[in-house]
Amino acid sequence: MTAFDYDLFVIGGGSGGVRSGRLAASLGKKVAIAEEFRYGGTCVIRGCVPKKLYVYASQYSEHFEDAAGFGWTVGERRFDWKALVAAKEQEITRLEGLYRKGLAGAGAEIFDTRAELVGPHEVRLSASGKTVTAERIVIAVGGHPTPHEALPGHELCISSNEAFDLPELPRSILIAGGGYIAVEFANIFHGLGVETTLIYRGKEILSRFDQDLRRGLHAAMEEKGIRILCEDIVQSVSAGPDGRRTARTMKHGELVVDQVMLALGRVPNTQGLGLEAAGVKTNERGAIMVDAYSRTTAPGIYALGDVTDRVQLTPVAIHEAMCFIETEYRNNPTSPDHDLIATAVFSQPEIGTVGMTEEEAARTFEEIEVYRAEFRPMKATLSGRKEKMIIKLLVNAADRKVAGAHILGHDAGEMAQLLGISLKAGCTKDDFDRTMAVHPTAAEELVTMYRPSYRVRNGERVA
Asked: Which residue among the candidates 144, 218, 406, 439 is catalytic per the annotation?
């Protein structure tokens, strides 16, 4: 029997890698994990966590304005960008320490280095040049923002990675992209007082979301003062003697701004990882190909999270890690369940969604019932803000199951998490109808829409 240095070697210290390494070590396995940047991965270090902190920071400008409608007089207001960056850094450093503490406490050996495959069971540690062996290897190296190298002047642009730690807050910014990262940062920068323009090649922002929410958010963002240019692209970026950027666009001429941010998707971190040497195959985007149990094409090598290009969400990577542990170390073959994943866009207002969009449901079912409410939230009645909430349920008419739930408005992400449980449990519209409302809340609309707003039969809208 071949003796290995480790039972499990994990490449990548993000959410999926840390969870799989910590759980395996807690089961008594000899585990090592290597991370070349900082433990916590994209989510903790330069993704979800710092982004949500910046979202909170950017909301205070509206909170101060709204306070007057409730009798408050707010004094002088000043924002200190560097203080926010420092506070963010303190928090993610604390979280990184917790990740390390959890691994060490479980008995895992921690390496601060890049690690690459050199064979089916072999890993080379770049810092020392040492090669170690492992019975099983998990690849959980995540992804990075696409640099869009075909764009002339792309090296003059920033990505979401750099946006968190800019030395100065720009006075103006152009953000290229229409996905959730682009939309969230457009709202963040605008809320912090930056003149913000969003440019997107598609007809409407957030292409994979329900059309009502996409249009509603677009209108809300423009009402706030964010300029949105759809069906247009940046063709080149150049720098002037004053350091400002000039972006030449296809339809709107030249736009001069302090910063240009590219949010045009993410690509897996598989470059130079030694996958070929180990027999691990990737797809046309460079993502590692896996089966239903996260097994790659090489025996003993597994891949989790964004590097597989399945669903790029932190909780999904964690779920895949737990399924890996169940399958490989607990004799309980468990395939990750990627169905009915609740998600949120931390725009302003927020989007919370789970299940099918109206377009998807109309293609899937012979007839659907659409329950839709649009209203002014209670807080806006005294603040004077013009914002609207949209709450929408999609129901398969044949069995009355709720196939999709979509919310635009305050705390939509919180509501989506609870709706995810309901839809996962297979709740019907009748279950919603017999649930008592919590009043006064926005969420009560979910259980008080008794009559469909309209139906869609065979793809056609009917009364």
From this structure: 439
